[in-house]
Amino acid sequence: MSSPARPVGKVTIAEVAERAGVSKGSVSLAMNDKPGVSAATREKVLRAARELGWLPNQAARSLSSASTQVSNVGLVIARPARLLGLEPFYMEFISGIESVLAERSHSLLLRLVSDVEEEIGVVDGWGRSKQIRGSIMVDFTLDDPRVAAAADLRLPLIAVGHPDLTGGLPSVWTDDGAAVAEAVRYLAALGHRRLARVSGPAGLGHSAIRSEAFAKAVSDLNLEPGRVLPTDFSGEQGARATRALLASAQRPTAILYDNDIMAVAGLSVATEMGVSVPAELSLLAWDDSQLCRLTHPPLSAMSHDVFAFGAEVARRLMDLVEHGSTESGAVPAPVLVPRGTTARVR
Predict the structure, then answer these.
(1) d(CA 147, CA 142)
(2) Measured between alpha carbons, how far is residue 322 from residues 71, 126, 318 in Å?
(3) Percent of the chain residues topping a pLDDT of 70
């Protein structure tokens, strides 16, 4: 049974270390959000500190200082570092956030974690230590546990996701359903009857929204039922999904991808398999980073100003931090930019 919480300053680091079964050095690293301890150890330390009601000296001192002295904003992303480094979306999104924070002499504190449960622990630790002023939450899943946990996190939070996914949290989102419907209508107007979609993880909320919109648009236009192959957003899995589609008996004549790195990989696979783009196969990317303009032929895309998206998220978070409230709302939806990988069916 957990001991009752004790006042800040009455508990020592040694007691926290003993409760967590780790060294005092590990407690210091974990509580100060420093590298050198595993995620499991960090979580044990945070749990022990919560049970004992303990904060490190620096955090305890911050409780008595003005909150405006803290100039960090947090962003936690539950994706592998290797994949994140290859994902143009997040590079643009973070750049947009930074453009707003820099105007206010704020900094972005970025953490990569393995899952949302670890994220909740990180944000809870930030709130208790007064290390940041507010946090951005991304990649919402269906029935996301962060929605229920948000009330206890003691921080201003802005959610990046559709209100159907984010509960009552202040949120900013794009209308992905409308963009998918536009893409399907465009491909159908070019004469394509057999479409496929290479999506992100099926459990992600925006993947589910896009899949539902894709199925509805295909049905409304009386096209053949479209296949959806989920991936982890990587080029490797995008290529594997494309090979599976092009090797199938019912090969699609058009493929819509959930990001541009998978579309680039898909274009390479089509070349590898001797399928001419766009004469035999049309490809349509998502987000429209610089990658789409560097391929041959250049990729058609659902173009999205991701930099402006990140900037708007940061502005609304700062409204929440500085004024206690902000408006939820959608930013402009992705729009179709035809280039060299889409054409009429022969």
Answers:
(1) 10
(2) 12, 18, 6
(3) 91
Element (H, E) at 73: strand 72-77
Domains of the chain: 1-65 (1.10.260.40), 176-303 (3.40.50.2300)
pLDDT per residue as tens digits for the range 145-203: 999 999 899 899 999 999 999 999 999 999 999 999 999 999 999 999 999 999 999 99
Query: Are the C-beta atoms of 11 and 31 separated by less than 8 Å?
Result: no
Q: Are 255 and 241 in contact (CB under 8 A)?
A: no
Residue 287's DSSP bridge partners are 303
List Cβ neighbours of 176 (8 Å cut-off, separation of 6 or more). 162, 206, 209, 210, 213, 333, 334
Distance CA 106, CA 121 (A): 23
Using CA atoms, how far apart are residues 282 and 301, in angstroms rounded to an integer? 11
CA atoms within 13 A on the CB side of 53: 10
Q: Which amino acid is at 170?
A: P
Please tell me whether residue 159 adopts helix, strand or coil conformation: strand
Residues 6+ positions from 69 with CB-CB distance below 8 Å: 62
